[in-house]
Amino acid sequence: MNQASIKVIQEKIGATPDGFWGQKSIAACQKYLKSLCPNNDSPNTDQASLTKAYGAAGDESQLVNIDVKGLGVKYDGQVVKTIRCNKNVAESLLAVVRELATFDEGRAALKEYAGCYNNRVMRGGSLPSLHARGAAIDLIPNSNLNKQSWPISATMPFSVMEVFAKHGWLAAGAFWSRDAMHFQKTK
Q1: Which residues pair with 83 in a beta bridge?
Q2: pTM of this prediction?
Q3: What are the structural domains of the chain?
């Protein structure tokens, strides 16, 4: 993103609109997004809490398909009819997708869907990814890679992050300053 785009985000989150994304902007961004979350809690990400909430990693009996026909979701240019996710996030994920389908930046993100359920470990780690529980989704992967800093080089629209936050999802780009393609539901 350019400095003008960063200034717009800074104004929205109550940070000094100077176009420099430092610790104060990061803290203000996280506080703002948490304020949008319905439960306004920090997510529990320890393995015991995740297993209690979503079942064991790879347990496909915890998965359901949500119908996203007609909402503009595409994977590698192909229309996606259903997203396979954890039954405990299905309602909120469908609400997110429906809301994203109502505005330009959201529709653009849905056209670059990159997956939800994937029974694998976290990149660079040994613990299961939230994708292995069907409680994470990736969008716009080509410009929001794991090692790209958001909002400096990663381009995930802030409006997309806001929609996810309103439905209780954490935006990795805002909370980890990287991996901006990744959103996870942890409560």
Answers
A1: 66
A2: 0.94
A3: 3-185 (3.30.1380)
